């Protein structure tokens, strides 16, 4: 009997909430620099049988940013701390392909995969923010150059993950041999950007290979995703556009010899729940009322990849605004919506302040479940990356009020079927390609 | 009433034991790739009121190495996992100043310090093994060049740790202001090797600055330590030499305007305990009997920083062997002992196999406590970095049999007096130098 198709769910973790002013909600967590806050989020995610929790990262900061961007931890370090206090939920973190070394990144995620018993996921990003360069004493490579580097970077990391075959650690007490050297090989990579000999000093991961996430939506970003990703995060504001984007990515996979089911596409969505539609909208308005426009301006300029702080707040967003070199996903989806709906800069600030450009769905639990079901069944996605406006309350509401509806409708698992993230995603454990 | 001078104790953590064949001891832990093994070691360390646990690191591997060098985790990731399941013990890990970026290292240890409530320590090493270069597509800088880079690297990391003043996160619900921008400054470092703007995206650490460990013993290594370290690991084989080295380091601190008490010098020692002296020696012989000479050769060549595999095992170690560019500490201490005691290569293999060149003390708990007391009181050190031959047994023996003797003699704390590593070390919390 074939399994019915079911959703995958992730949660985008920012301690002070995904809404820029989420920390101002009564009872909301006040800090992303607090392990206990994130441990509680992880517990709620496991109660909701989530596939994964996700921690993003940026390589520069500004005190005017979203509070959880301005003051936070290095995400792999944070996830490793969570590995010890969780049992099932996948642990995804961002690491840049532009400002790291593949040997280091491969080691970190291999270590995290072991520490968590097979739950590590790497969000490979090219780092769109050019201010990162100032912290690394370098020139920020251009958009397409960053993706050329990223293509090779991902291959090197995956190659390093393949350097140990299963069963290499033999621990033979009779002979004193601890490792079978025939099961450990160098990678001997010599490419355009990287020379990496290998092997890693870490044996093969529980998952074989940790999961690879990706979130780019430019042409080279889609190619990288279609070729290498297991999970793709998208930015959506419109069902038709989401369906088209989904279809485009899935059909692109064939170019790389892959089956469409090998990638789960998860758009970001901020659910705002109320016992009536009006109450949900009221909640969203109250949240929006907390937004400090000064902050929203800094953040919107960074979301759009260009300084827009000189525009009058109540002018229409001009239709000839250029698409920047940096982040096609957010800028594209937000600007398309602004033009479609003839938004002012203030409207766009509100949109960006709410969920940084992601889709916001306000309604009753039934309405939200209906919408998610519609998107899922009409092949706009394979599930969702949930962006609770604040923690833990808004996340608990989703897990306690919407998840049970999805379960009752057969759209979502009632329990984990395995312990590894691969199990949740329904992906087989890959064999090493070096043996 | 002035506190009497008391020892500081660290434990060098290698899952399969510090002895190269420690895993072959009955009941010994079998893997360094096992969080539960290291969690148990950390529990024992806290029972023994240890200052810190320490995880080393190397940036290349070889299946013939010490099993816990060949197959292990990236140490910061591992420590972060331990942060969640420990409460007092300091968490020290190695990160290279030659193959990392200061912005990344500063973030990792700042994050670890927050996650652990003020228990992070960074062992800043220059990476002596030239094979690291092959994994990073680079030339391995020469010894003295590595230290020039390290001097600047450590300053940048410490500068980044100073970018946030205490109290910068205000979370003002009335105004919506989350951060006071006057309390966050860039570093604006422009040096010979690094250009780093800052600030970090992480607020000031619980310890103000994480602790800095160092373990170099060359001339430039001692300068770096005298100027910047809080704790120094040494390699010793002889009381007189240890006293001279201790005195030399402490007096060198004055050049940098520091007081001798601002550094704790901890030589590595492997205690092997028995209910009689003969039983302890018997245990050590049994351990040495487990050594596979093939492994010892690979490891000894790496310890001495030169290929010595062509020498006949039973020839004397030649007195004209050059001191390598790589690791003065181990090579120097081991070769001095070999020449002093007219050792053959086989003897030296045994020495290196036992504790990688560190000092081995076999005896009853009283004898071991006497020796440690003598070294401590005669100013050869400020405490010890304990290298149990295997885990958990040999470490439990030390904690249960030797630590109580040291406590009874007033040489060692009976309980922690604070929660942070700085508290254990008796070091004040530094103010930011940027404010
Ligand atoms: C859900 C989601 C999470 C993201 N997380 C990060 C992140 O943590 N760090 C980052 O630099 N970029 C992040 N991005 C940005 C993208 O990964 C990508 O780098 C950016 O959109 C530019 O790529 P593109 O031009 O191909 O769209 C994220 C995007 C999405 C949709
Ligand atoms: C207890 C101890 C631990 C050490 N741990 C590491 C380590 O984890 N990684 C490393 O590359 N070097 C390590 N070293 C080596 C030294 O930090 C140093 O790099 C080496 O001795 C070369 O420096 P020198 O020439 O100044 O002696 C360690 C040394 C000692 C004594």
CATH topology assignment of chain A: TIM Barrel
Give me the oligomer status.
homodimer
Q: Which ligands does the model contain, each kind named once?
A: flavin mononucleotide
Q: What is the typical, i.e. mean, pLDDT of chain A? A: 94
H/E series of chain A: EHEHHEHEHHEEEEEHEHEHHHHEHEHH
Task: Identify the CATH class of chain A.
Answer: Alpha Beta
**Continuous helix count of chain A:** 15
Shape of chain A: globular
Instruction: Tell me the domain tally of chain A.
Output: 1
Give a short account of the largest sheet of chain A. Answer: 8 strands, parallel, barrel
Work out the largest interface and the residue count of each chain. Answer: A-B, 75 and 75 residues
- Low-confidence segments of chain A: none
**Structural class given helices, strands, pairing of chain A?**
alpha/beta
Helix content of chain A: 25-40%
CATH-wise, what's the superfamily of chain A? Answer: Luciferase-like domain
CATH architecture of chain A: Alpha-Beta Barrel
Strand arrangement in the largest pleated sheet of chain A: 1-2-3-4-9-10-11-13
Q: What amount of the residues of chain A lies in strands? A: 5-15%
InterPro entries (chains A, B): Diverse_substr_monoxygenases (IPR051260), Luciferase-like_dom (IPR011251), Luciferase-like_sf (IPR036661), NTA_MOA (IPR016215)
Organism (chains A, B): Paracraurococcus lichenis
EC number (chains A, B): 1.-.-.-
Keywords (chains A, B): Flavoprotein, FMN, Monooxygenase, Oxidoreductase
